[in-house]
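Risk register update: the risk of archive-format incompatibility is retired. Evidence:
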Amino acid sequence: MNARRRRALLAAVAETLEPDERVEVTSLVNLSEVSFKKNMAMGLAAAVLSGGAMTVAATPQPMYLAVTGRRLFLFQANQVFAKPDRHVATFQLEDVRRTEVKRGLVKHSFVLLDESRGSALRVFFPPISRKEVDATARRIAMVAA
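Archived output:
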């Protein structure tokens, strides 16, 4: 993540931090994946329906992730102005576990499991955020095998 985006994210997170809490890791992530097959099928369908005049491609919504010693924050990313739009969720690190990091050719991912809510969320790190994968994963406990 570039310095401008990081400063904007840190400013947004600063409002919710406790006095002795500090941000340890920041990253740009995607929370949902649009598979290649679905993307191709949608593009083909749009091309056929429009008589070849247009095609479409779906992209996942980028999010900013910030991890402190106690919490994990997610903010919706504004792609035009390179700043967080709105706060989406906060997870207590003591309640969150993760799966093993899955390392793909294009992007890396892991699943966050929130034990307090009983929910799961797949987090994808695009190529520009690969450096932050291991730093983020180290701060979140693994799921017991």
